[in-house]
Design a protein that fits this description.
The protein has about 525 residues and is α/β, with parallel strands linked by helices. It folds into 3 domains: about 140 residues, Molybdopterin biosynthesis MoaE subunit (Aldehyde Oxidoreductase, domain 3, Alpha-Beta Complex); about 200 residues, 3-Layer(aba) Sandwich (Rossmann fold); about 90 residues, 3-Layer(aba) Sandwich (Rossmann fold). Helices cover about 35% and strands about 25% of the residues. The chain contains 16 helices and 23 strands. The protein has a 6-stranded mixed β-sheet, with helices on both faces. Helix 11 links the parallel strand 20 and strand 21. It starts with a strand and ends with a helix. About 0% of the residues have low confidence. Bound molecules: zinc ion (ZN). The site of zinc ion has 7 residues, from loops.
């Protein structure tokens, strides 16, 4: 017995109460918002003549239903719920919004239920308001930040099945999921839109892999190509008297968190008949793509710099992928991969650009929340190269926030190697001046990325989470490697950057717990371990 409307019609409060009243209803609590004529602010009193409201209707209606679901979860004795948001031009004194909850008796929680409803409506429903007064008009930004998803949400609403698609956050162009393009025609990386929001009911509790979140990650028609990736252990340890949790992404099938991205990418693309993949990679991304292409019976072609680690090259070859060694600097391998893309016979699964990887890394955030007993970490510390894992975590925690399951974004702390720290420079100096930012060399080869393609989004995510970007020097990386190993955790040097950053955080005592360290890759692929630790 619910009623939802987004309407330009006048609102009749009595009629609204009747919509959620049955014979044994004894109480209806209605919250009503009205247009205020005078607003006292820091700059004195502002006069309003009228307000203009707009909504992206399909998305807004979906969110109203979500608010009602949340009310029922918290106040189970609520019987009927009615939520009406008015749009269009509203005069001073007009009703703008109404949230009504009914129950058998006034002690059944209806006051709190209505109050919760209006608070959540303000937080998550995409409604925009323009204040028009004698001094002109101004759009008032609520706490809800619209995404391209709102704009592209399907009109109508009869079809409830999710419509996954790719969209460019820069120019708003959209593409089908099976586009052969690896980035937008404007040059920017694409994002996946249209996936359902997180809910505990959507989690398959019988599946102990990333695919426990299957319905949140891929369209129902897609069959996962899986090697059992994800649902990696979260191990609590104590460091200098502080509780710290280690997320062992190093235990994924090919030895790094990149398996999540490769699994999702190969699942989606093989489902539409793409059977040939290539990438330029000197390490974990190449190994992951090769493994999942092998699992799917597809082919993979990796362009690797001649100087790349012999163990990682061997791993790629072991999975049966074609390996082309490219002499010269790192970028020549990228050029070779782009040239193959231009021929049109193979999908360029660029680990820097492809939208599937960060989307898959949302699952790490979901897992952390589940493994911490339905609580978010206070702080997550992770190695930072291209920033795809950080973006995935930010998206995943945002999903949990939208679902009302956590109170705020955990602080995201990205750690770079001092000798290759373009994001650290941009974060602290506002820009990375040419010639000032060196791109290596560092033993943290997995984050030796001179020009991260999603730098703006990464910096925004770090700032939005009140996080930080830190650097550590080569000595500190080796120390981290040894100290983690001394506790039984063998990681690659890239992952070890988090250890000395953790020490700095513990000393500064400014970051909230629980603290999670993402141990991104296995130590068993590092060929010169003996030299490093001596
Ligand atoms: Zn674009």
């Amino acid at each position: 017995m619910d009623y939802f409307a987004i309407t330009s019609d006048r609102l009749d409060v009595t009629a609204l109460a009747q919509k959620i009243t049955i014979p044994d209803t004894g109480a209806v609590c209605i919250f009503v918002g009205t247009v205020r004529g005078l607003t006292k602010g820091e700059d004195g009193t502002v006069q309003t003549e009228y307000l203009h409201y707009e909504a992206y209707q399909p998305m807004a209606e979906k969110k109203l239903r979500q608010v009602a679901d949340e009310i029922r979860e918290r106040y189970p004795r609520t019987v009927g719920i009615a939520i009406v948001q008015r749009i269009g031009d509203l005069k001073v004194g007009d009703v703008t919004v109404a949230v009504a909850c009914s129950s058998g008796h006034r002690t059944d929680g209806v006051f709190d239920a209505a109050r919760y409803g209006i608070d959540r409506l303000k937080e998550i429903v995409p409604i925009w308001k323009k204040e028009v007064g004698p001094g002109g008009s101004v759009w008032v930004e609520g706490s809800y930040h619209p995404t391209p998803q709102d704009v592209s949400a399907p009109a109508g609403g009869a079809d409830e099945s999710p419509a996954f698609e790719l969209a460019c956050p820069a120019c708003r162009e959209t593409y089908p999921l099976d586009t052969p393009l690896f980035r937008c025609e404007c040059g920017e990386p694409l994002e996946i839109l249209g996936a359902p929001g997180f809910s505990l009911a959507a989690v398959d509790q019988s599946d102990y892999s990333m695919w426990r979140y299957r319905s949140l990650l891929i369209p129902p028609t897609v069959e996962p190509v899986t090697l059992g990736e994800g649902w990696t252990p979260l191990i609590p340890i104590e460091v200098d008297g502080s509780a710290v949790h280690l997320k062992l992404e190093s235990l994924n099938p090919s030895g790094s968190f990149k398996d999540r991205g490769a699994s999702l990418l190969v699942s989606i693309l093989t489902s539409v008949g793409i059977t040939s993949f290539h990438d330029d990679s000197s390490g974990n991304a190449g190994a992951a793509l090769s493994a999942y292409a092998a699992r799917a019976g597809s082919s993979a072609h990796l362009f690797v710099p001649e100087y790349a680690s012999p163990v990682k090259k061997a791993q790629i070859a072991l999975y049966g992928a074609r390996l082309t060694e490219v002499p010269g600097p790192r970028v020549t391998a990228t050029r070779a991969a782009e040239a193959l893309h231009a021929q049109g016979h193979s999908y360029y699964a660029s680990h820097a650009y492809n939208p599937f990887s960060p989307f898959a890394y949302k699952s790490i955030a979901y897992e952390l929340w589940e493994q911490l007993g339905h609580h978010a970490p206070g702080t997550v510390v992770l190695p930072l190269g291209n920033g795809t894992q950080l973006l995935g975590l930010a998206m995943g925690f945002q999903d949990l926030l939208d679902a009302g399951l956590i109170d705020g974004q955990p602080r995201l702390v990205g750690v770079q190697a001092q000798s290759c720290a373009p994001l650290w420079h941009q974060y602290h100096n506002g820009h990375a001046q040419d010639g000032q930012v060196s791109s290596g060399p560092t033993i943290a080869e997995g984050i030796r990325i001179g020009e991260p393609v999603r730098s703006r989004a990464v910096l925004e995510s770090v700032r939005a989470s009140s996080g930080a970007i830190m650097t550590v020097d080569e000595m500190a990386i080796v120390d981290g490697l040894k100290e983690l190993a001394a506790r039984g955790f063998a990681v690659e040097p890239t992952s070890a950057v988090v250890w000395s950053a953790l020490r700095q955080l513990i000393r500064s005592d400014t970051f909230p717990g629980p603290v999670v360290l993402s141990l991104t890759g296995s130590g068993f692929k590092t060929p010169n371990l003996a030299e490093l630790i001596n």
